[in-house]
Amino acid sequence: MFEIDGRLATKLLNARTSGAVSVAEGEPRSILAEVTLWLIGPVLRKIADLPFHVLSHSVVANPNVSIDLFAQVTEGDQLWQIDALRGR
């Protein structure tokens, strides 16, 4: 994933995760440990106007500022960031 809402994926996720995701320098690096509590959830479908998500972890930050995910996303998918710390 290269962009979210027109912003570079790594930079946007870094801002939304309080600095947990930084840009990879030189070679791809695992970010799974840093983002375990911040999931990305593409909307699978809606039932009674409630969205159901396919939860996915961000796995790798790449030097080209893209993020690799466990789930496949397609351009135009509606993505939600799920914060597991919220409400604690």
Task: Give a description of the structure.
The chain is mainly β and 88 residues long. The chain has one domain (3-83). 14% of the residues lie in helices and 36% in strands. It is built from 2 helices and 8 strands; from the N terminus they run E-E-H-E-H-E-E-E-E-E. It has helices at 9-16, 32-35, and strands at 3-4, 7-8, 29-30, 38-47, 50-53, 58-61, 67-69, 79-83. Strands 3-6-7 form a 3-stranded antiparallel sheet. Strands 5-4-8 form a 3-stranded antiparallel sheet, with no helix packed on it. It has a two-stranded antiparallel sheet with strand order 1-2. A hairpin with a 5-residue loop joins strand 6 and strand 7.
Q: What order do the helices and strands come in, and which of them pair?
A:
Blueprint lengths: L2 E2 L2 E2 H8 L12 E2 L1 H4 L2 E10 L2 E4 L4 E4 L5 E3 L9 E5 L5
Roughly how many Å is the radius of gyration? 13 Å
Total number of distinct structural domains? 1
Helical proportion, percent range: 10-25%
Oligomer: single chain
**Count of alpha/pi helices:** 2
Low-confidence stretches: none
Proportion of β residues?
35-45%
> Any idea what the shape is?
globular
> How far apart lie the N and C ends?
29 Å
Report the mean per-residue pLDDT as an integer: 84
Based on helices, strands and strand pairing, what is the structural class? mainly beta
Task: Describe the largest sheet.
Answer: 3 strands, antiparallel
Order of helices and strands: EEHEHEEEEE
Number of strands: 8
- Placed side by side, the strands forming the largest sheet appear as 3-6-7
